[in-house]
Design goal:
Residues 11-185 form the Immunity protein Imm5 domain. InterPro entries: Imm5. This protein is an all-alpha fold. The chain is built from eight helices and two strands. Strands 1-2 form a two-stranded antiparallel ribbon. Helix 1 packs antiparallel against helix 8 and helix 4 (68-80) packs parallel to helix 6 (108-125).
């Protein structure tokens, strides 16, 4: 998929918003406009998958030999390509959602890194809008289960998942700048998405995001 002028313009506006935000944040309204301009469920789903891949190494640090979460990420792309059923995707997502919950007390950041993959799977299989909710510093924080994968991934990446009052602003800016550039560009490309390679049950990142 090639960028339309509308998408390019919205990305430029988004980068300007991030650069001028004291917290380095990209608002939900801007994200919605970009996704609406893209208007292709497969591409939008790939953006969510890339957000899951962005923070996957945090989960992988907790479970070095785990293949289930990366397996869910790959299955989500297969679903978007029509290569697996919605039933099978949701079965895996439900199982791994509970699995991530089990380790919440051990490492909340790693657990939510896994949940980004779960949210990406749920969103890909949903007939509803893929961007559901966000937070506003002037409002009560909503249920994390309603946060979209990009926002949830940003909180994992910027350490805000533990306490929204202590977000690393530079990390937040870094995440949303990546989202607007490399993430969307990769999602719109025709190539298969970059994944992690496994060798001798040890994981190694072969591409950086």
């Amino acid at each position: 998929m090639k960028y339309s002028e509308a998408i390019k313009s919205l990305i430029r506006k988004g980068l300007d918003e991030v650069n001028h935000s004291s917290a380095g944040h990209l608002s939900l309204s801007t994200r919605r406009k970009i996704l609406q301009a893209i208007n292709e469920p497969c591409i939008i789903g790939r953006i969510s998958i890339l957000c899951a891949l962005k923070v996957y190494p945090i989960w992988n640090d907790l479970f070095r030999d785990d293949t289930d979460i990366i397996g869910l990420i790959t299955k989500t792309e297969k679903y978007l390509l029509g290569q697996t059923s919605k039933k099978d995707l949701l079965k895996d997502a439900d199982h791994l959602d509970m699995f991530a919950d089990y380790y919440m007390e051990d490492d909340i950041t790693a657990s939510f890194a896994a949940k980004v993959a779960v949210h990406a799977a749920y969103d890909a299989s949903s007939d509803e809008d893929m961007v559901i909710s966000d937070y506003d510093s002037d409002e009560e924080v909503e249920n994390p289960d309603e946060w979209d994968p990009a926002f949830l991934a940003s909180l994992v990446y910027n350490d805000g998942i533990v306490d929204l009052g202590f977000i690393d602003d530079e990390r937040n800016k870094e995440f949303w700048s990546w989202y607007l550039t490399d993430c969307i560009e990769t999602a719109c490309a025709n190539d298969r998405l970059p994944y992690l390679a496994f060798a001798n049950k040890a994981t190694e990142v072969i591409l950086t995001f």
